[in-house]
Amino acid sequence: MAKYTKEEYALAKKQSDELLKLILEKTGVSRKRIHELAENEFVAANLDVVTPAEKKRFDRLVFGV
User: 46: helix, coil or strand?
Assistant: First the structure.
């Protein structure tokens, strides 16, 4: 695995942030919306840790069979 200096890491992080900002502007998507989508994906990917009894608490949500 390659070693990076603090400066190289900072530059890569800056470019990553700039790229995300550019793509958000071009697509009209907000950071808040991305956060919401990520949360939904996380919940869907981890439903296996919730018991059937616990799922009953969430009667307004639909769970796949």
Answer: coil
C-alpha–C-alpha distance, residues 10 and 5, integer Å: 9
Query: How do residues 29-53 score in pLDDT, each as one tens digit?
Result: 999 999 999 999 999 999 999 999 9
Q: Which residues have a Cβ under 8 Å from the Cβ of 49 and sit 6 or more positions away? A: none
Choose among 11, 30, 8: nearest CA to 20. Answer: 30
CA of residue 5 relative to chain centroid, distance: 27
Question: Which backbone phi and psi does 63 adopt, to 5 degrees?
Answer: -110, 135
